[in-house]
Batch of 2 targets.
Target 1
Amino acid sequence: MTTTLSPPTPTPAEAAPDWTESFGEEMDAIRQRLLAERGQHDADYIRRLIRVQRGLEVGGRALLWAGVLPPAWLAGTAALSLSKILDNMEIGHNVMHGQYDWMNDPKLSGKAFEWDTACPADQWRHSHNYMHHTHTNIVGKDRDIGYGILRMSEEQPWSPYYLGNPVWATLLATFFEYGVALHDLEVERLQSGEVELAEKRGLIEGIWQKVRRQALKDYVLFPALSGPFFAFPLAGNATANVVRNLWAFTIIFCGHFPEGTQEFSEAETENETRGQWYHRQVLGSANLSGGPLFHILAGNLSFQIEHHLFPDLPANRYAEISVDVQEACERYGIPYNVGPLHRQFGSVVRKICRLALPDRLPSASLGVARGALGGLRKSAGRLLGDLRTPA
Amino acid sequence: MSSKPASLRLLDAFAGPHGVDGFLEQVDPLLVTGECRAEVVAVEHGTEESVTLTLRPNRAWKGFRAGQFVQVEVEVDGVRQRRCYSPASAETEEPGAELEITVKRHPGGRVSNFLVDHARPGMVLGLGQGEGEFGLPRPWPDSILLIGGGSGITPLMSILRTVLAADRERPVALLQYAPDPERAIYRAELESLARSRPNFRLLRSYTRAPGAGDLDGHFSPTHLPQAEPCFSTAETFACGPPALLDAVRGMWANGLEHRLRVESFVPPELLPSGEPGEGAIRFAESEIEVADSGAPLLVQAEEAGIAAEYGCRMGICHTCTRRKVAGTHRNLVTGEVSSTADEEIQLCVSAALGDLTVAL
């Protein structure tokens, strides 16, 4: 749901240069202020969060060891799910963005951090930090538009394969950690022949090693500790992974696909200025409203706009700066897309289903046709009326 | 894989990406297997401008030799900073023995001020192994002369305590320089040792309180014979500010240099920063040095033929982040200037101010 307070605004390419530069300067000023305030408070926050995550992991696995007892299984699976969600989103994603590099703690270095999911961290850093954040929502360059298997934009040409859009989306959501792990492989480009398999051998090896280690840990080693009752921790671990996958998919897809978010072409984003880059980040992103706990579980990706403006600033600060960002957007007439989870995700689901079908006619032509038809009816009516009433 | 025993590798497999340490340190920060850390067990303000910390190291600590220094890592305002301090405690073979450091406040110093004002028992610090060549050689010299100024007294205290603990005969003399009695570090203990040990001679000179000490003024040739008449045959250890050390070196020139060991304690200050295009950029890992052109470090690395990793080239994605070993740099986006050593910097938006070394 967009909250525009002024008439439709220009895109980054169309807007007057001094307009975007001025907006860019205001965003830079917010960044500077944040950098000045960053300190012990933020260090304490991430350390506390890590403490909670490690506690949930140990507690979850301990409970699942006794998972043959239903209350232990339920509590253990819930704790492990929360542990994986925190590790993946509020901790892993944010640390790997370099948000805590300034602390000079090698365990929190974005370049060194590895997370509890199938995707190798270095491949994530490449596909996400670099490719997605630099080329956000540029069709043809941002491969997060569809992950190579879904149709998430009208700009992607339709083909009968996309009739299965809702099915592929459900599968991707359920097995999201593997979808993300395979992301940098660029499977669709391998299939089309654009990229040679030989170039990807190193990546494949990395993916295999990480997937193998994760599967060994969750599906062999920990279940083995429960001896004859291994099925219970195994089921619990699998469930926790799926819960994390579904949650991450939901939050992440709400970041750039709800109704109102915009995509861009390579042509219109060539030679972008810093101000235009900021502008495009706002137009291509959408926020989720909710309470503090919701935001933490969402890895503060519920503040997708602020995250895209300042990907390398500590995410725990996004809530406070969202006030200034939203205010600036209102002044410049830039749409600030925010809504509750059910509404934003609902519009994403509708988009997935809608794009599964071919676009019969381009909507603009549809409008022209309707307008022309209406005009014909009016003229015909007048003619008939003239014929009936003698002058 | 690695040469770790199978049991440890199994434990790693259970622990997942965060490693066993990732869980151990939640129980007790000192329990980590891969890092040397120490807990502050006692805090004492011997003078107004200094604090003496007693540290209990974890099992990774291998000890030190009297006179060596250690790197201590302290978190100040969320950022881990490293500084060098010389343990003042005696050398010991005892595993797990505590060590003592004394930190003197430096104007504008982030770590020294933080420790003097906020150090408290229970704090956990990072600890490096003993390093440096300055210290007691083995076998010990027949007679020892120690000359110290300010916080330079700390390695000398270690040498002194080590020798006096083992030996009641070997002559040891200490010549200490301080502004006044109130600011003389370890004054009470030194006086007590001087009274109880006949083989220890103590002489103090208070540079801003004439008459208060055994000698007056800064180091001069007249001070020496009173401390140790046979100073030319004693093994001499000097540590303190540059001016003191220059004066001492002057006395030991002309053939006596081999009897003198010197450790320089330069107060931390902002490295003199030059202008862009003035200094030399050193790419340490590639062993390439270029004259600074003023361009961002990433560009200069590429021009020098180094295939540096990069991404957005605009300071967003952190792909090009590398460690700046030493030197002053300016962040081209924020304008911020920093001289912190061992700092992670984004090469695409950093320019050098003067000489700079980066781990690339």
Target 2
Amino acid sequence: MAVREAEPVETLQQVKEAGLDREDLLGIYRNMLITRAVEERGHILYKQGKIPGSFYTGRGNEASAVGVATAMGPNDVGTPLQRDMGVHITRGIEPWRIFAQYMGRADGPTRGRDGNVHMGDSRLGLYTMVSHLPAMLPVGVGMALAFKIRDERRVAVAWCGEGASARGDAHEGMNLAGVRRLPVVFVIDNNQWAYSTPAHLEYAVDHLADRAAAYGFDGVVVDGTDVLAVYREAKQAIEKAREGGGPTLIESVTLRMEGHAVHDDAFYVPKELFEEWARRDPIERFRTWLRDNAELTDDEEDEITAGVKRLLNEAIERAEDSPLPDPSTVTDGVFAAPDELETPHHR
Amino acid sequence: MAEKTYLQAISDSLRLEMRRDQRVFVLGEDVGVYGGAFKVTQGFQEEFGASRVLDMPLSETAIVAGATGAALMGMRPVAEMQFADFVSCAWDQLVTVAAKQHYRAGTPIPIVLRLPSGGGFSGGPFHSQNPESSFAHIPGLKVVCPATPEDAKGLLATAVEDPNPVLFFEHKHLYRRIRGEVPDERYTTPFGKARTHRPGEDVTVITWGAMVYVADDAAAKLAEEDVSVEVLDLRTLIPWDRDAVLESVARCSKVLVLHEDTKTGGFGGEIAATIAEEAFEQLDAPVRRLAAPDSPVPFAPSLEKAFIPQVDDVAAALRELAAY
Amino acid sequence: MSTGTEVEVVMPQMGVSVSEGTVTRWLKQAGDAISRDEPLLEISTDKVDTEVPSPGEGVVAEIRVQEGETVEVGTVLALIRPAGGEAAPSEPTPAPAGEQELVDEPQAAAQPEAEPIAEPPAQPASSASEPEVAEPEVAEPVVAGAPVEAPAGEGNGRTFVSPVVARIAAQHGVDPGGIPGTGQGGRVTKKDILAFIESGAASAPTAPAFSSPLARGVLSSKSHPNDIQLTTVYNTVILLHRGGLRMYLCCLKPQN
């Protein structure tokens, strides 16, 4: 049970061994572009006063989020966090609904009841995060508990930031997962900064993946800017869990390329660090890999880029047309009604 | 029909639920092999198996979050806190996740949390509390406090069916001391409906849990003094039966709100304020509250007696109200 | 999006606790062309300094806040006129139908809310001794046709006496029933009784003198000056009673 450092995926052949074909790769690339574009456009909308509250992005985390989500099976579930917009995009949440969410519109996933990335869609296996991090991590473990009780070949993926790993929820959730050998994969988004707090003030070990051994399972550290490496590790871990092999802790290392939120300019991050990691931009990195190893052409690139732009323009327009929530509905939905219980699992 | 203790009624109810619905499962500390600290789940692991009766690690967060996650996947978990007092460790999971998930995401969280609560046996500050009011204050949670074996059985069944997180406070003092006739078959008792424990005319006591019996004993004393005291058992706090309370107040015009939880910020304040707002013109005396004083639950018996409202305390308050 | 009308550029809220921002530098001047999302100005707030991208495409029509000025979040900083568009009064940022309803609701709510408060109590507290046969049919719920603002004495008077009024009444030996009430449904408020006492009216009986001891006794305890009608044929005394009315046809000999 040692901590491994994952190796990069170098050739198309290795990609095929990891279970992806060329179409899949272009799809991954597109999802990363959409993820970044959604956040860039949202950032602009925020500064135009069209988005209330605050605004968070996961710039620099696109490969980590999209890579893991691509490795999830259709019936798997997850509890992604605020740097994981790529998970929502990959699993199929439509961009217009994301903008509607940002703008607090009635057609957003939370119908205006929560903001920014606090959204999900249970039909897509995505469960809405909370601000108290990582409270959803042990909830993800609870999902895996249900799979185990029912003997289902489904996996839960539970995300956590390197800062949030300092909280008891992370410990208590992982401990339960290890004790019961549950089908859950833990992904720690280590972007090195928790607001203004650097990693060395959040944990004392070399790698957070080192902690996996303390819970009785394997840990691996992966370069979070390498989407294929992330994909391969995630796929391996998810399938292992599916086969009853228990949990894995994947520590995905990136740099948070913007402030904690849009109101934070991250003055505390050394400029050199930003420069260094900008050279490892996950999208640019994958684009280069595709050109070098998968013969990505100018035409294909242009088509993908134009398609993303069109998609987002339409999405923003549609979201802006979506109505604001009716104030008289403010207390609707505090309690669920009995007929809302979906019960597909009745043996 | 059979005579059962309050504890047996709860145990029966849970057993019937687990037989009825495969999705129902039990999780908590020492609930499996040991049968639960109070033996409510004794025999359950033998009958239902170790995958439906889970001995969990010492982690209220893992228990409540585990239940929440499983409920999101379609299960009907009935989680147990070994003592109600330990629910504070799972506060965040209840208040941040379970209470707010449906409102924001439309996904119901049908979990039941069983909480052995209350004092009266020198349990000390951490084994005797009635932490109902702080949860009653959080929109999205339901709070249930049965007083009788019959109600305990029916209310637990309703709790399991309810698509919302339900905090089910079982008063430990009643577990083996209170017996009653309980139907053998499964039945549900509705939330938000009070029960007249004792009808009366001159003063009404609005209460729940173990205090129902204290109020009843005090009412018996006052009957000998020609004062007719009504005892209304709320049975559930969220939702609570406003109509029954207002109706009782309209008839009696003098009301005492009684609870074992501490006074300041206790749920009695909510009831008293509602009565003042909505039944002002029916009142023939100020609305009175009687509750434990604002301190942690003390250990020594003499101190605990001064803490938990006693029959004589209630009787004195009733006499004052009657004389007003 | 706007078509032909000007687009407002507003001071954004850069973080939940931020309430204002300072314009530090305009990147464009009035009359300059500007594209959608192109940086238009720079601002400074307590938390962060940043640029504001233009929400519109066209020409900067007007700059309203100068460099160095600090304004509240939401303040209009500039207007952008779409290319080829006329100068027109600017539209507010999307105002949905919901906001209109919000304005109208308080008025709509006022009427229904009045009703529950004005309902007569379920049981009169001191009804035991009086024959009540006629009352249920005669009694009208106070709310029917009786707006909250109606002064007392319209026939639907209420005799609910609040604790503070009862205390004041007892202190001064005054009967609240004989006092004009301006409270909900005609009840006597604390102000009413204090004004009554201050006016010195407390000592003067309000009822005209009648020879009938029955009438006098009744009048002095329950009458209202405006409600006593004497005619040459019938001497009628209208008594106000909680939630209803009771009419007496009394043959009374007026004192003169």
